Amino acid sequence: MSLSVSAPEPGQSAPSQAEIAARTHTLHVWVQPEDIDDLGHVNNVVYLTWCELVARAHSDRVGMTLPRLFELGTVAVARRHDITYHIPALLGDEVEVCTNLVSSRGIRARREYTLTRVSDHKRLAECVTDWVWVDPVSGRPKRPAAEILAAFGF
Prior knowledge:
Blueprint: H1 17-23, E1 24-30, H2 44-61, H3 66-72, E2 75-85, E3 94-105, E4 108-117, E5 123-134, H4 146-151
Antiparallel strand pairs: 1-3, 2-5, 3-4, 4-5
C-alpha cells in the first residue's frame, strides 16, 4: 500500500497539490509501556488507536473538528478496518503514522494508513478504513455537506 492519491474517476481531473495536501496528514507517536502486550510488543489494538488518532488530527487540522461536523449535521463512523501487520513496534519506538483520504463518494469515504518505525524506516503495519457519513442525531446515512468535502480536498 502506498499513500499516493488514487487515480481520478473517468471525466475528472487529477487532484491539485492543495487537494492532495488536504487529504493527507502525519502524526508521530512513541510506544509507551501501556502499549506493550504479553508478547513484549505493541498490542494490535494500539495500531488501530493510532490510526484513529491521526484521522482525528487530520480532521481537526482542516477545520472539521467534531463540534463543527455536528454543526454541519454529518459525522463519519467507521464501517470496516483492515490491518496488515508486518513487524512489531517495541517499547520506546517512534512511529510515524500517515493517513491519506483516498476517496469520498456519496456517503462513503476511504482512508489508507501506513505506520513506520522512524529509526530504521521499517513498515510496521498498513491499514484501510471504510467510513460512512451519518447524521449524528439519527445515525442514518447522510451525504456530507460540500463544505466538508472541500475541507478534505474533494
